[in-house]
Amino acid sequence: MRAAGAASVDITPRVGLPLAGFSLIGQPRAVGVRGRLFATVLALREGEVELALVTVDLVAGMEDLHHAVRSHLRAAGVPWARGQLYLMASHTHAGPGGMFEAPFYNRNASNSGGHFPELADAMGARIAHAILRARAEAVEAEVHHRSVSAWGLHANKSLKALDPSDLAALHARFPPPPGTDPEEGAVDPRVRVIWASRPGEATPIGVIAVFGAHPCAIDPLKGLMSSDSFGCAARAVRDALWERHRAVVPVGLAVGTHADVNLQLPGRIRDAALAERTIPDEHLAIPQTLGALLAERVLAGLESAPLRGGLAWRGQSVPMDVPDAAHPLSRDPDVGMVAMGGSEFGRFHLLRMPTVPWYHPYLSFKQRNAKRYARLYPEGSTRPRPSPWSPLQWTKRVGLKADLVSDLFGGAPPKRLHMSWVRIGELHLLGLPFELTVMTGQRLEGMLRDQVGDIGLLTSATGGYASYLTTRTEYEAQHYEGAATLWGIDTGPWVEDRVRDLLQGPEGEAPPGPALVPAPLPERPLSSSTCPVQRSGCLVEGLLPEGVDPSARPLWDGPVVCLMTLAPDGSWEPLTLGGVPVDDRTRAIELSREPTQPTRWRWRWVLPEALAQVALVGARCAAP
Hints:
6-stranded mixed sheet, 5-stranded mixed sheet, about 25% strand, 32 strands
């Protein structure tokens, strides 16, 4: 009998931590939050085999976090092996870093860096708690999978770096609609939806969706922690499922292959989002619009026959610094100046970045520096580099030697390749720590089809992080993805061989742990104090009472502000939406320090159209 359970848990850390994902543009430390960060668990069991699919609203399923989750499970009497925890990421660039295995990324995944093992431990404890809860609540279930197309939401900015034959093969599998912009057509358009339900029932127990786009639409200079467009999509799916089934369903999204989120939205979408004027900031309108459109496709994927067959898993860690005669990885890894120069944004971000005022000299310097590098070392740069400097990476046009990287940028690149494979009936999930380009993903998925003959699904930044994985053509073209490939032109073929070894290895075996029922997570109770609410159109905002500091603890452990409304009998009652209270944990309410009063916090929320006529008269705030 197959069983499934699902749970979701808040993993938002305190503000003040450096945000991970953008390194050189002057992205500040977090000064506020817009939409909490969550981990979502879909726990599966069949006979003696059990595992968990977990999505986290972070830049990657980082190694420190992976280790911390398993350590807390082991302490609870559930000694899971590495392969049983399939730890995916939404790849938001508005969450904390500092939990990478490689010192290089702890230092350079943000502009201020740092290693935070205590954060990994705190997050790991909460994620392990959610896994235990999902296991304890598991019921007899069917697991489903379906792919649906979503065109126009993401684009491949490295179109010039693609091999024409690869592009032709991609379009043979996924013909873009007539009139599609070439960059919007050079993507994997599929939204892959995995969901569980009781046999014969339509109400999901939990939903996991995978989509091949950077979900990075939040302005990186605002310093807001956020789950970004994928978080907006998860909330929209959950709200729709409440309307359909009157059930609160855990929903998580993870990144597949990598194209860029399409900030140059098709005219009708972008113009409509801005014309509504319900969101005063264009940078907040875009992730919400993208999230709503992505949610429509996720919901369309919740119609499928159950997967048939058994449940299995494998996990493997392979050293990356062992000589391989067939595919010699570089022993002198490089970081191309294209990557270091900030062209990771291309025209989608650099042209949209606001001017930083002169009285922020550090940020303005960093922004000017990024733009300068982007001009000096444009994507596709063909500047020659003397081959003796790096003989195994001679195709790298401009780069930095590994020892120089280590000396100047603090720490060595990744040393191990962590791989995860999960089989759910006919569906095979392959998780790699790289950011997989569209074409690399197509090649690996083709290899999966050749090896296992079933349905293949790839996820990026899973169980660790090790930069980009590209085809040879992409590497040679020196676009951003190729510039960020540390181990050279042979990395792709080398990884393919390691994946073949993984697929041909024995299936993992681990005894199931006891079915523990975890105690509830401690949370601060809400006080009955209220704060005045201002309203302008659909925007509702106010100041938290003096002394209420949401950043006082390592992890936020409960709602800070809960919106209330006045009942007909004159009493206060929580405002609900989608079956849950409207508070800063369940909705994308923005919390940030008040510029004119540094000890006070401001909250604001834009009402959806469905609640535009609700007369909000106050808010209940958390006790200090």
